[in-house]
Amino acid sequence: MFRFAQATAAMTWLLLIAGGLVTSTDSGLSVPDWPLSYGTLFPPMVGGIRYEHTHRLIAGFVALLIAALALWLRVAEPRRWVRRMGYAALAAVLAQALLGGLTVLLVLPAPVSIAHACLGQFVFCLVTVIAMATEAGTTAQGGGRRGSPDAVGRGTTSPLCSLAWGLTTLLGLQLVLGAVLRHTGSALSLHILNAIVVSLVAWRLILQARRAREQALIRLLGRWIGIGLLGQLALGLAALAHPDAVWLTTAHLAFGALVLAGACCMAALASSPEALRGMRARWTAYLELTKPRLTALALIAAGVGFFMGARHPLDGWPFISTLLGAALVGGGGNALNQWMERDADALMRRTQRRPLPTNRLQPAEARRFGILLSVLGVVVLSMTTHALSAALAALTLASYLGAYTPLKRRTPLCTLVGAVPGASPPLIGWAAARGSLSLDAWVLFAILFLWQLPHFLAIAWVHRDDYARAGFRMLPVLDPDGASTARQMVLYGAALLPISLLPTVLGTAGAVYFVGAGAVGLWFVAMTVAAARARSETVSQRLFLASVSYLPVVLGLMVLDRTPI
What we know:
- This protein is mostly helical.
- The protein folds into four domains: 1-136, no CATH class; 154-271, Four Helix Bundle (Hemerythrin (Met), subunit A); 281-437, Tetracycline Repressor, domain 2 (Orthogonal Bundle), CATH 1.10.357.140; 438-565, Four Helix Bundle (Hemerythrin (Met), subunit A) (Up-down Bundle), CATH 1.20.120.
- It is 78% helix and 0% strand.
- The protein has helices at residues 2-24, 47-76, 80-106, 110-133, 158-184, 188-210, 216-241, 246-270, 273-289, 292-309, 316-340, 342-347, 363-384, 387-407, 414-422, 425-434, 439-462, 464-470, 475-478, 483-500, 502-505, 511-534, 537-560.
- The chain is globular, with a radius of gyration of 28 Å.
């Protein structure tokens, strides 16, 4: 079984090379029919037909090999996870064939070809791990009985598991970006940037693998990943210098597949139930550092800013890179905010279960993570969009961490200061799309700025005891009867109503937006008045929920009723 799986993996790798030649020579639609080529199994092997038809022949043979391997695993393999990998490989290779055939018959767009290419790499990784798992005498502990059911998957330590899966994920992203680059010519900057991140993570993984003194196979895979990555980087630089060299671009793809397969094998070796649980716990903690709901809201605002500022038709990859950069900056800023306020978070009931107060992560880990995400976000924006967008993202970080966060302990004006970085995502998106800021962009900023104030005052009123315990000088903490808080809720809610109608006045949105924004704005003002009169936690909680509903409705109406530029 091991020899057969090994041969199947080798043929799958050959299939990837054949597919790479089809793309590199622009032979993708040289044959107009499928599954036959010009109605026959043996068309004239000339021009692009030679590459396309050879790719089809190898693909058919590989599909038969994987079907036989999946059947053999079902009959003779005692480990359920290995059998499931065989089924997954068979399903993926059939889906890949279907995508390829439909692309030829229906001339489907580039995203389908990208999915086809990525599925091929996925199949190769699955078959390679199966081959390693069925190898006689190999175990995760560096030795073992021939044919042992625990040959792979017994596991090592959580850091190695986390690094191996992290590298596999990043290499998978690199594969997607490479497929996008090959099929559309886009995403080169993201591909280069992710290669740098991949190199840093791979270096940490190699150092961790060297410490696995009793696991010979893990050390061997660590060396292979290091050597393979150096070769892959060299081929990538050569392909950039000589983009028309078919053999270079194809070798870059093929070598990358070997590195990705090595990372997958390392992840499989390092994965035990205990290691996977530890990895999931750490990844969950890192995700919590980014405050996902707050980051998602900022992403929506940045996306709306890009969409409103873009000239149609919308260019997809700059839009995606803007969202990626904004997500990294927002997540990094939130992580650094939690690092800076870790002592205060431990004192408040609403935050005491965050990763740092509960010691699920160490402060140094949170700091490094936040800095990494923040720097990456600014770099992504600077490399893939306009410089103004990256500058605005950097200023947003500086005002959030350098002004708002320390001012929370000093003055109730911190809410006004904090509303500035909170309202910046639409400016970042608009600048990414246009390269400049117009009055329409500043109106978007003003809408978010004014919306945040009743929103945050409602939160602060509900949790004023918590804030007082942590030493935060929010307005509701210093305003026991709530009179000043109530006045400001109504004031900013009332100011938001006319400002939210300006997009129609300026011609950015139409009449439908005007009517809808006016109606929901009147409702929001009524909620602020109700909260001001009651001055109770229950009604303030309702205002908070109303504010959460208000913003998506207004932004959604703006996008739906946008006036084309």
